[in-house]
Design brief:
Shape of chain A: elongated
Structural class of chain A: alpha/beta
Largest interface: A-B, 54 and 54 residues
Largest sheet of chain A: 5 strands, parallel
Oligomer: homodimer
Number of helices of chain A: 8
Strand content of chain A: 15-25%
Radius of gyration of chain A: 19 Å
Chain lengths: 240, 240
């Protein structure tokens, strides 16, 4: 029997209208949709985005991929997800794995794909890019990620403070993702150093409860989930 | 009279199916679509993506924004574009400015928006993010931009060689955009240094004449346009 094809599908940053036509086309033609879920979520965020676009009769399979730093535990869950998907592909079923934002950016898709290809390197794979959280944040704030000859760095709040400091000093544009419980640490870092930068904070861009602020003092006093981002931009000549 | 609203609309990296529902909704409801064109292009690349989605009777206005390093000349063209759009908004017409990829990433939209807001800071603006070239390249190559606690840098081939070298040494993932006529320089840089990285090159991802290669010798011998990108990834432990 011919094996099924495996699709990684980016569903965008939150607003169902930021889905692409290609993502919807794929989700409407596959046999099975795999839906990643952290054990904390009651309902998959990625699934809530695509829910209204897909056929009612498509097979939906939830895959629990917990957010944990325990590498052994993670490895076990990824392997389990990979073998579940691989078995479905072996039945000749086309499968999609949906992922918030873009499949190439901090997505569990990377691990799952690697796991599947380790089990069977002959699986046909297609990755559908999505609008990423980074582009969504830039649009919300109406601040470009980079212009002309500038660079931008995307990093995470999990990096050591010293490293973050160096990056902020060196680059014109810095996006720090997954702020979550590190929000206060990063806000303080921005307050206590003279980086000569504009600091912006945005949480849950594209959701109804979006929050953004340039006031790092205010930001440091509240708590936010992992969909929280700092965007730090060097002042341009005319802004100084 | 009430002024029109100004939309910046990302139309994605090339494949018309990578347009979002939101982009198409906006392009179908505005009164005027502004289409940026370099003086080299016979036809706007961004327009070729949206051509089949928009109404026939929508007003289309081409805006020439040349690719040049002459800052004075650029400034003049941006100002002209900004004032043209501002005048149309003043007539009460909603206007969209389309842009390849995402409006926040190396797009002329940033300059035009700044120009318009300088003329009239009360203009209502909405930016619709798009699938960026960076996400498209990552999907094509089936290589993640970043996983876990990694960072990635997006920079351009216009940066000095010394700076590019430092970035490649320091970061897990580096994307060098706008390779174009600098392709040979970058390919040589990657060949002649022992960065302990996987180097990938891709030109025109998402177009029919896409080309990709891991062979930097081959890459350095051919010529490519500005839609050319290097993607450089540190080897993971198991790949070494």
């Amino acid at each position: 029997m011919e094996k099924g094809k495996f699709y990684g599908v980016g569903v965008g940053p939150g607003d169902p209208e930021l889905l692409t036509y290609k993502a919807v086309k794929v989700l409407r033609k596959v046999d099975v949709i795999f839906i990643p879920k952290s054990n904390l979520e009651k309902r998959s965020l990625a699934f809530s985005i695509v829910g209204n676009y897909i056929q009612n009769n498509v097979e939906q399979v939830e895959v629990v991929l917990p957010m944990t730093k325990d590498e052994e535990k993670l490895e076990r869950y990824w392997k389990e997800a990979a073998s579940k998907i691989k078995n479905t592909l072996d039945e000749g079923k086309d499968c999609a794995f949906i992922t918030l934002g873009d499949p190439g950016m901090y997505s569990t898709f990377s691990y799952v794909l690697r796991g599947i290809l380790k089990l069977d390197s002959s699986i046909e794979v297609e990755v559908i890019p999505g609008v990423s959280a980074v582009n969504s944040v830039s649009s919300w704030l109406q601040q470009p990620l980079a212009e002309g000859e500038e660079s931008f760095v995307v990093t995470t709040a999990l990096k050591p403070e010293k490293e973050l400091k160096e990056i902020i000093q060196k680059f014109e544009n810095v996006v720090i993702m997954k702020a979550g419980k590190h929000t206060e640490k990063i806000a303080s870092l921005l307050q206590s150093n003279n980086f000569n930068c504009k600091s912006l904070f945005i949480s849950r861009a594209g959701f109804n409860d979006v929050f953004c602020s340039e006031n790092m003092n205010e930001v440091s006093k509240r708590s936010f989930d992992y969909l929280s981002t700092f965007f730090i931009k060097k002042y341009r000549e005319e802004e100084k």
